[in-house]
Amino acid sequence: MKYIKKQIPDSFPFSYYAVDILIFGFILWSLAKIKFSLSAITVLKQLTYMIFFTIFALGYISLITRENGLKKKLFSLASHDELTHSKNYTIFEIELKHQFKNSIQNQKPLTMAMFDIDHFKLVNDTFGHLAGDKVLATVVDIVQTIINENDPTISLYRTGGEEFNIIFPGYSINKTDTFINQVRLAINHTTIIYNQETEQQQIDITISIGISEVNQDDLNSQMFYDRVDQAMYQSKRDGRNRITKK
């Protein structure tokens, strides 16, 4: 049964399990008949019971598995952005409050970055919303790849139209320098190819980043968030495509 599950990982293989159980059950009761000189009627009864029990047990397990799969899908839809598959604002609020509380209570560093795709409205107005969608998905792919290569405890969230947040549990602000610069440079050096009906379009993008660390003056997570937000908008006011620390 473990082998069957490995071959069919994405669903509950009801029929394969049933056939597997019935084959080995038939072998078992055939050997029992020989060893204990059981009558054919007794063996037939046991096989009948086994068939009914197998169908009932596997049917129940299949129902539970399907229900759990549905719950996971619903949770994913509620907590992740449908377009980019990154975590959404709802889960961001929950996890930010949790990480902030943990940072204050345990005196652990916590840093957060916020970035915005520069002139994103111009991309939509010039190339269309499908091109904008491709830009968003590409940016998330780049950032998530860098996260996976560095530290899976770092989390990326899409918190607005073209606005994203990254939470760094256990990181001081200076410890994030390498990561943040890697993100900015990777996005800056990416040219997105968008195929319109008549021709290919090249879209070059940059991002403006604000970053800050929890400090003793932060009374709640909102104060922390606001400071990061102000840092990002400072980057935009200073000419975009830059990093501002506060």
Automatic annotation (TrEMBL):
The chain crosses the membrane at residues 12-32, 47-65. Gene3D superfamilies: 3.30.70.270. InterPro entries: Diguanylate_Cyclase, GGDEF_dom, Nucleotide_cyclase, Rev_trsase/Diguanyl_cyclase. Signal peptide: none annotated. SUPFAM superfamilies: Nucleotide cyclase. SMART domains: GGDEF. Residues 108-246 form the GGDEF domain. Keywords: Membrane, Transmembrane, Transmembrane helix. Pfam families: GGDEF. It comes from the Bacteria. This is Diguanylate cyclase phosphodiesterase domain-containing protein. The lineage of its organism: Bacteria, Bacillati, Bacillota, Bacilli, Lactobacillales.
